[in-house]
Amino acid sequence: MKIAIASDRGMVTQHFGHCEHFHIYEVDGKEVVNSEKVKNPGHRPGFLPVFLHEQGVNVIISGGMGGGAIEIFNEKNIEVIIGAKGELENTINSYLSGELKSTGSVCHDHMHESDGCGH
Questions:
Q1: Which sign, positive or negative, has the C-alpha torsion 79, 98, 1, 48?
Q2: Which of 2, 27, 70, 79 is the most interior residue, by most CB within 10 Å?
Q3: Which residue numbers delimit the Dinitrogenase iron-molybdenum cofactor biosynthesis domain (predicted)?
Q4: Which CATH class is domain 2-42+60-96?
Q5: How far from 103 is each of 30, 45, 51, 59, 64, CA to CA, in Å?
């Protein structure tokens, strides 16, 4: 299984499409067996869900995300966890231990500050 976390400077980003990188963790059971940092290739409507699907991602974790991206991830059977925050290592460990749950809070406002989601 592959789990991607949208990140900025080692922290979960608050807006999926504007993250610096995706940290992609390859997981076997509840153990991380490999990880890689992939630069965000650019924010364009509908592009990033397809890009991550092509990377073999099964789960995406972010602070916030727009409804259109969530719909595309759902169509591709990729689990979406939104409302996450904090350091990447803590976030992946929380997910693997079953403690990290999605808040379901969708970003509806794309006229926001660069590090927020207009909540």
A1: positive
A2: 70
A3: 9-96
A4: alpha beta
A5: 22, 23, 24, 15, 9
